[in-house]
Every structure is written in C-alpha cells, then in structure tokens.
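Hi U.,

Before I forget, here's the chain from the pilot set. I'm dumping it here mostly so it's searchable later in email.
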Amino acid sequence: MKISNYLKAALLIVVFVQLPFSKLLAKPKVLIFCKTAGFHHNSIAVGIPAIIKLGQENNFDVDTTTNSAKFTASNLKQYAAVIFLSTTGDVLNDEQQKAFQQYIHSGHGFVGVHAATDTEYDWPWYGDLVGAYFKSHPKQQEATLHVVDRNFIATKHLPAEWKRFDEWYNYKYIAKGLHVLITIDEKSYTGGENGDYHPMAWYHEYDGGRAFYTELGHTDESYSDPLYLQHLLGGIKYAMGHAK
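Structure:
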C-alpha cells in the first residue's frame, strides 16, 4: 500500500513538472465574435464589456474580435467557447467555416446571442448549430416569456413568467432536437408569426460540441439587467462545459 501511494505521488510530481506553471494556473477563455456583414446592433458596444465583467466575476478570460481570420484551428483551440454576439450576414469564408466545424466537433462550445440567427443563411450546418434562422421582427415592445425549463443553469433563477421589453424575432427555420428553455406568448404582444411553438432560448448538443442560443439582447438595457446577465452567464457556462 505504501509503495502504491509513493508511485501515485511520483506520477503527480512528473505531471506537474512537465506542465508549464502558467498552464496550471490558466483560466478558461472564451472568444466574443461580433463581425457584422449586415445590420449592426448598437448593443454590441455594451454587450462586450458586460461579458468581460462576467468573466472577471466568474473566473474566465474573454477575448474579442471582429476579424474572421481568427477562425483557424490553431487559434480556436485555446477557447472553451465562442460567442457570436449579434453577428449578421456572411461572416466566415469556406476555410474559416471548416475550422469552426472542427472546433465544435472536437468538443467545444458555442453561444449565439440575438442576431446570431441572422447569420450565415447559406451554411446549413451553422443553421442547425445556432438552432434557427431569423425571418422578421415587429416593433420593440413588452411581451410575456414562459420559462419552460427552470432546472437549467441559464434559467433556474428566472420567474416562470418573465415580462420583458426587447425585440422579438420570428423565424423562417427552427431546427429539430432543441431543448427549449423559454418560449414567448404571442398573445402578449403584436407581430408574432411562429404560433404556439415560438422558442426564445434553447440549448443542445451538436456535432460533438454544445450550443446555447438566446434571442434576447437587442437592447442596450439588457446588458445592465441582472436577470438577463445571469441568463447569458448560464449559457456561457454550459457552452464552456460546466454542468447543466
């Protein structure tokens, strides 16, 4: 028994010696990607520092970029998750798409915020990753959200009914197999077009990785709202590989 314990201790010493000290202390890191090839949301400017602050308070580092050239296999592998913060349009070329697919396939995470569903319409793999494609939206207004799963890390703090002012998307495509967290009550506002099944936030495992999406987050005020920030933080933690 003593010999076995000595061997275990020796193996631990070998592991610690071989690993750089910086690696032992390294925090997990996420990348905010906020390139826009279509409409540019002003709330990106307040969303970035809000997520950086979430990282500072929750022990993860945050890098930000609008440069799609950062989507290489060697660069992406340093990140636990990539956050598409209100990206729009065609933001990645073919090689960058391949690198991102490889990144997800290798077990990493994705977070889509608001206009992430208004992105890469000609890339079906991405449509299934993010979970939907944007069609239209009515004017910004208050609506009632139903939190249909309050056991998940991104929704357990929310009320069962959440009244909120934001910009509410209609979708022309919704992927199958999503674990829906929040739906919107189309009777509570004008302009909804998806009927009784109108999801607003979801998560799923996809192609070897994890994906979380929240439609919420158009308004600047979202990024100073504690309920929304905790919701977003939960999605980031899930994408990084934390427990559900």
